[in-house]
């Protein structure tokens, strides 16, 4: 067994001999300047006082055999599951005893932080395989479900066996540290099997990497994301207590001079103008809400004054600001791909608004070129269509955790998918009737035959059950085939289609409501993951991001990475100066774990007051927020030792047998008190979700 302190001493000695390690040590020194320290006052529980030990352990990720781990897990899962099982059956006590627990004991390695990543990689692959192999579709789904269950069990073991700050950082590394699926493979495999990827931006050795959290979102592993250990880390990331440099597919304005590893943030040790806090998901969502409100206000002001002289001023301001907002929207898509971005509730609304604005921009330029007035402008008529989209998007943004909006997002996917098939069939019926019309005679105004638009209108009315004129006049198309086609379309479109549509939407809604907590946590995880931005363009609010692209992006090709980073940070701090000051003042108060005094300074009163405490039932919450003294924790441990409490695992209760004749040392007592504080904090956090 190697002494960790000796290993750390040798790693410190090796810094002087390797220039790359010297540069890495400079980056670690920058972490302290940014307040990214492991010893924090707002995280309860014991932890290492030297952050360098944690960072050194993170650097050992490069030595993990990820490639072999992926194929080892795939081989074991395929051998274990050969019949179709549901997720509920795999979670049962029998399957848990025969398959799940033996695999967890075989695979779990406390030194292998890539294990959860390898399990989720296999889950993604099994889900993709079931779409192309219809014969083994159910078996592939069962194997994918087993991978999710194993990942949940392994993550819980990491969380239970590591407490305090060290455990928090370790579990955070399991979820958000980047891994390469070909890491540990031979050079021949790298050359022959690795696919080309566009574009591979230089990230200082962090290219082509993904995180376990991103794979869980991509595979929609909602049970895994709803587990206690995962919720704990996601909440810490969302609040900005756990920070890291995000890994993205492509950046529009890349600044990869520094790569910060997973660390804890302490605002008391951070500078006032800490521009990295603009990437905190909780703060980022507030900033994006303010930006979207600004966009909506500019839109409604421009539309309200479309026929007044103020339009000459409001329309350019709205257009320029919207272009900056669209740049941010495009950067969000290409950062992690459409598969991840589409998981956000308002992604389809943003796409619709961008399409409408693009059509407005093209037609408005034509109107200006043709010198048409606003009263006859097609561009202004098109942009009017954005009003319902903006209002709906605003509601989705304000209430992202509302189960009604979550259900609506999922139901709209099924609705548009089914309507696409119906429109396809509708096109076939309309073409048949039009061709029959051409055979029977002309369709001009001189004859009584219906026109093309009239034919389409009749079919739409039959589709929605509004009118039966098309059926009554179907003989005008053909005395035999006309009624046959229209009546068949009425049965298929109005009866069968509506029945299938209602059944599908009802099933989707019932499935979401049945597991509402997991759905809400999944959307919360998507917000947290997408909130940690990698592209520097997100740090410039619209429309300054357009100016940054015009000025800074060409400058990147003429200056070095260090100078470009300094210039970029300077402009970010200047533009976001009021925002950074407000963030610093807010975090200095909100991250303080000490109880707020009733005699605090009067000028801090707006930051101290909480309206939820102004209630006759406020003491119910306050009694659980108090940090228990050590004497009380010792008395509770004597009354009810946690080692004797049965643990409910699945449907099986595991009884813990206390050890007889062993007295706890002072270190063990301190560890038990820390674990009890940790469990108390977890219970408090889970109750606040």
UniProtKB/TrEMBL annotation:
Species name: Ceratocystis fimbriata CBS 114723
Chain residue ranges for the region called Disordered: 1-26
Keyword flag Ubl conjugation: no
Highest classification ranks of the organism: Eukaryota, Fungi, Dikarya, Ascomycota, Pezizomycotina
Superkingdom of this protein's organism: Eukaryota
Protein name: Calcium channel YVC1
Calcium channel YVC1-like C-terminal transmembrane domain span: 299-589
Composition bias, Acidic residues: 16-26
TM region positions: 286-304, 316-334, 346-363, 416-437, 478-505, 537-555, 567-586
């Amino acid at each position: 067994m190697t002494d960790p302190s000796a290993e750390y001493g040798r790693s410190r000695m090796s810094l002087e001999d390797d220039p790359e390690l010297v540069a890495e040590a400079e980056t670690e020194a920058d972490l302290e300047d940014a307040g990214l320290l492991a010893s924090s006052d707002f995280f309860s529980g014991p932890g290492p006082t030297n952050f360098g030990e944690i960072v050194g352990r993170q650097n050992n990720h490069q030595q993990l055999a990820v490639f072999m781990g992926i194929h080892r897990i795939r081989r074991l899962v395929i051998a274990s599951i050969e019949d179709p099982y549901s997720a509920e059956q795999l979670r049962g006590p029998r399957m848990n005893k025969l398959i799940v627990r033996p695999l967890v004991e075989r695979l779990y390695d406390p030194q292998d932080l890539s294990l959860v990543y390898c399990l989720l990689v296999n889950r993604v692959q099994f889900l993709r395989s079931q779409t192309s192999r219809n014969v083994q579709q159910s078996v592939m789904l069962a194997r994918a479900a087993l991978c999710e269950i194993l990942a949940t069990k392994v993550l819980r073991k990491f969380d239970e066996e590591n407490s305090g700050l060290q455990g928090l950082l370790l579990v955070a590394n399991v979820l958000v540290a980047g891994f390469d699926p070909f890491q540990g493979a031979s050079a021949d495999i790298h050359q022959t099997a690795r696919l080309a990827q566009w574009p591979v931006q230089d990230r200082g050795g962090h290219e082509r990497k993904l995180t376990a959290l991103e794979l869980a979102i991509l595979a929609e592993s909602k049970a895994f994301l709803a587990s206690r250990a995962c919720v704990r880390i996601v909440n810490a990331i969302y609040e900005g207590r756990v920070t890291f440099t995000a890994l993205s597919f492509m950046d529009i304005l890349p600044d990869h001079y520094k790569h910060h590893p997973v660390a804890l943030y302490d605002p008391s040790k951070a500078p006032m103008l800490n521009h990295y806090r603009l990437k905190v998901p909780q703060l980022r969502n507030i900033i994006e809400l303010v930006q979207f409100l600004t966009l909506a206000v500019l839109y409604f002001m421009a539309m309200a004054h479309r026929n007044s002289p103020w339009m000459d001023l409001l329309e350019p301001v709205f257009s320029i600001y919207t272009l900056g907002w669209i740049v941010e929207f495009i950067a969000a898509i290409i950062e992690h791909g459409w598969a991840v971005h589409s998981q956000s509730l308002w992604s389809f609304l943003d796409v619709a608004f961008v399409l409408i604005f693009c059509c407005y921009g093209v037609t408005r330029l034509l109107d200006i070129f043709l010198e048409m007035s606003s009263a006859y402008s097609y561009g202004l008529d098109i942009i009017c269509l954005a009003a319902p989209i903006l209002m709906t998007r605003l509601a989705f943004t304000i209430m992202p955790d509302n189960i009604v909006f979550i259900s609506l997002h999922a139901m709209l996917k099924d609705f548009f998918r089914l309507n696409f098939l119906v429109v396809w069939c509708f096109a076939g019926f309309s073409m048949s009737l039009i061709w029959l019309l051409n055979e029977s005679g002309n369709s001009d105004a001189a004859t009584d035959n219906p026109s093309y638009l009239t034919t389409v209108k009749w079919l739409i009315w039959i589709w929605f059950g509004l009118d039966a004129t098309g059926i009554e006049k179907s003989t005008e198309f053909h005395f035999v085939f006309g009624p046959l086609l229209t009546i068949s379309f009425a049965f298929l479109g109005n009866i069968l289609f509506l029945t299938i549509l209602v059944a599908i939407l009802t099933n989707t809604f019932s499935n979401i409501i049945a597991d509402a907590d997991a759905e809400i946590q999944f959307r919360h995880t998507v917000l947290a993951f997408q909130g940690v931005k990698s592209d520097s363009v997100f740090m410039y609010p619209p429309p300054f991001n357009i100016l940054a692209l015009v000025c800074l992006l060409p400058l990147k090709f003429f200056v070095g990475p260090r100078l470009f980073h300094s210039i970029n940070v300077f402009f970010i701090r200047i533009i976001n100066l009021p925002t950074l000051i407000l963030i610093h003042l807010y975090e200095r108060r909100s991250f303080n774990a000490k109880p707020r005094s009733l005699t605090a300074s009067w000028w801090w009163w707006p930051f101290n007051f909480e309206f939820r405490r102004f209630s006759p039932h406020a003491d119910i919450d306050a009694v659980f927020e108090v940090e228990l003294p050590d004497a009380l924790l010792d008395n509770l441990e004597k009354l009810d030792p946690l080692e004797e409490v049965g643990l409910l695992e699945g449907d099986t209760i595991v009884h813990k047998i206390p050890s007889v004749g062993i007295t706890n040392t002072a270190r063990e007592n301190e560890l038990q008190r820390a674990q009890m504080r940790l469990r108390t904090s977890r219970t408090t956090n889970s109750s606040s979700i």
